[in-house]
Each structure stands twice: as C-alpha cells, then as structure tokens.
Sigma-70 family RNA polymerase sigma factor (Phototrophicus methaneseepsis), 241 residues
Amino acid sequence: MELGPIGYNGGSVMISEDMTSAMTTQLDRTNEEWLADLRSTQGQQPAAIDDLRERVKRSIYYYLSQERSDLRDLAQKELVTMAEDLAQDAVLRVMDNLDNFRGESRFTTWANKIAVRLAISELRRARYKDFSLDDLTADGDFLSAEASIVGEAPPNPETAAERDDVIARIDAAMKEALTDRQYRALVAVALRGVPMDIVAEQLDTNRNALYKLIYDARRNLKNYMESQGLSTDYMLDLFQR
C-alpha cells in the first residue's frame, strides 16, 4: 500500500466510548453478539464483517483527518481512500485477535484502537519506505549534522566549542568501537527513529536479535567513551547547560 512520504508526529491516541458511539449510525451489537456473528458459520459473518469494516473505516478516517496535522494538505478523497485501504487490513487484524478480546470495554472501542494503531504503524512505514541502511555508513561525520542533540537556546562560545569537541569524539568513537552492523542499527533506531521492524527487515534479522545488537552497541560505545575519559554524566551535563 503506497501512502506517500508522510511524517509521523508520535503521541498516543485515545478512542473513547463516546467517539465510538458518535461514529456509528447502526444499531449496535453487544460484545457477545459481535463475537458470535464474526465467528458464525451460519451466514451472519459477512454482514458482521461489513459492519466492522465500516466502523473501523470511520474511526481511521477520523484519526487521519482530525488527529494528524501532517495530513491536512491531503484532499478528502485521498483520506477516504487511505481509510478504506487501512480498514481492510484492520478487519483482518481484528479477526486474527478475536480470542484476545477480554470484554473490558465495548467491542467496537477495542476494534477501533486496533485499527488506529495499525494506521499509525502503516504511516510510519510509509515515511521510511525509501529508507536504506546502506546509506548509514561510518564514512562521514553523522553526529555533527544532528542539530537535535544540542539545546534549543544557543550556548555560550566556550560551551559551544566544548560540545563540538565532544560530538566529534563521539562520532569518532562510534566508528572505532562499533561494527558496521552495530553502527547502522544504532544510528537508525536511536538517532533516526526508524521503526524496529524496518531495521530488522533490512538487516535480515528479527526484533529480538536487533535488540541484542543495539544493546551490545550501546555497551561497547559507553565503555569506549569512558576509556577516553568521557563519562555519561559529563556528557549529559554538557548538553543540558
């Protein structure tokens, strides 16, 4: 599914009981009726799936049109198309997780949360659809280009010079202390914010192995920096001034 170069602005999404009610005009089923109809082999399932698709589509459209400031320039038709595409996948996700529904909320509220989380995930993947770990090599000064690691207020000249020196030393340490695989994983996840599943896919590994790779990279970098006389406390203090 092509969603274009859409940004992700993070944050949690709350789907309330009132919102769920407002987005439907159909006579609601009870939780038990939803589960029974969606699992039915007697003919009720198709209608229940259609109803569920319409409900989660409205929920997704509401999220795309009201909660995502980065999508404000898209035409309504584009948002509707996106919502329809995502609703198809959301229904499959809900059907796969029916056994996990515990009845602690309305079924539609639970399903809408799944749908919106899926939308968030797909939008994040769309943002990085052209991202390649092959571009993250230790050939250049990566950290020196990361303005986000310094404070918003300009530091005094002495602090600025000290920060520049530390950034250069961290940049060099990453090249010295980390393998190319560790470097790319750490930069992508910790500094670029690339989703774990995308990095794992490009490294031909799984999430657990990627967690271990990043943990080892952080540990190696920390040990190397301390051997160079740069403690974590010192660096945190320097960039919080």
Notes: DSSP finds ten helices and no strands in the chain. The CA atoms of residues 64 and 79 lie 7 Å apart. The domain at 17-127 is CATH 1.10.1740 (Rna Polymerase Sigma Factor; Chain: A). The chain has two domains: 17-127, 133-239.
